[in-house]
């Protein structure tokens, strides 16, 4: 069985997903596309033999489409995801599920009313080999009870439109999801800590920043986010347990990472670092759809991640510790 996928949004990651789904993932084909950039979408459509539609509902409602990928900017996600649920079609929505918890709750409500899981959120780190090995070490209790997590999220440079809250809503949202997933607990509070500003960050942007996240049982997760670090895309994570630690391999055994000098071994961007994870993620989604199963990150995971990232933004604004407001998990997602 071949799953015919419609993709909405053919920018950076959308185009990569089109390529993966049309030529690397087995069991899928890309049949329909839409993007507000009509020239670009027509070019991509002709390269993979898909139909370019002139609106998102054309893709979602098309009889040529069995399932939909949403890879447009976050503020469009809720409306498009709701339209997919309304059409009864499985939808893979890139992170964030939506920028506000109110919109996420609307999606949960619609999915529950539909009676079956239709939504998967693009938290691809859960499909990364190294993160999966860490999860195994936590789940089989070989490092004992988890006490602490240390995370780093660094990018070479940020786009000019990046504001001081975006490191949390765009970047740390991945650490939020991986922390919840790794330790199997909700995050309940966030405190953003000011750091000396880099001269290489734009004038308007606080960079780097540190946030301390607290889990329900008291596990503390510190995350450094530095989106103008200059030398490479560097993601690290160490989970400290009572009996040992589980960590992603650091890019080098020691020392100095600098632009053009010693940053070999550090990938230039997320496309390189998580290339395999994106592929495994989509293959898993397509394999599941073939059996009417959606087992990846759910709309509930998307809602929780947005709630925590919004809490970080509140802490940035208030300068103090803020608590996460979550509804009780509906039985549908248990
Ligand atoms: P992008 O700006 O490169 O692409 C967005 C595309 O959406 C553009 O082609 C634009 O013309 C199109 N677009 C904008 N509004 C639209 C609308 N109303 N209807 C149809 N098309 C519209 O952005 P990028 O980096 O590809 O990000 C897209 C989404 O993917 C974002 O939500 C982002 O957070 C997420 N993302 C996730 C990553 C991950 O690691 N899981 C990595 C990069 C992006």
What does this structure look like?
This protein is α/β, with parallel strands linked by helices. The protein has two domains: 3-124 and 277-296, Rossmann fold (3-Layer(aba) Sandwich), CATH 3.40.50.720; 126-269 and 308-323, Dihydrodipicolinate Reductase, domain 2 (2-Layer Sandwich). 37% of the residues lie in helices and 20% in strands. The chain is built from ten helices and 13 strands. The strands form two sheets. Strands 12-11-7-10-9-8-13 form a seven-stranded mixed β-sheet, with helices on one face. The protein has a six-stranded parallel β-sheet with strand order 3-2-1-4-5-6, with helices on both faces. α7 crosses α10. The two termini are 29 Å apart. The relative contact order is 0.15. The chain binds 1,4-dihydronicotinamide adenine dinucleotide. 1,4-dihydronicotinamide adenine dinucleotide binds next to α1.
What's this, in brief?
It contains ten helices and 13 strands.
pLDDT under 50 segments (min length 5)?
Answer: none
Spatial order of the strands forming the largest sheet: 12-11-7-10-9-8-13
Query: By CATH's scheme, which homologous superfamily of the largest domain applies?
Result: Dihydrodipicolinate Reductase, domain 2
Structural domains: how many: 2
Task: Bin the strand percentage.
Answer: 15-25%
Radius of gyration: 20 Å
DSSP summary: helix tally: 10
Biggest sheet architecture: 7 strands, mixed
Mean pLDDT: 95
* CATH secondary-structure class of the largest domain: Alpha Beta
**Helical amount among residues, as a percent range?**
25-40%
The ordered H/E elements are EHEHEHEHEHEHEHEEEEEHHHE
- Which structural class do the helices and strands define? alpha/beta
Q: Architecture of the largest domain, according to CATH?
A: 2-Layer Sandwich
Globally, the shape reads globular
Number of strands: 13
CATH topology of the largest domain: Dihydrodipicolinate Reductase, domain 2
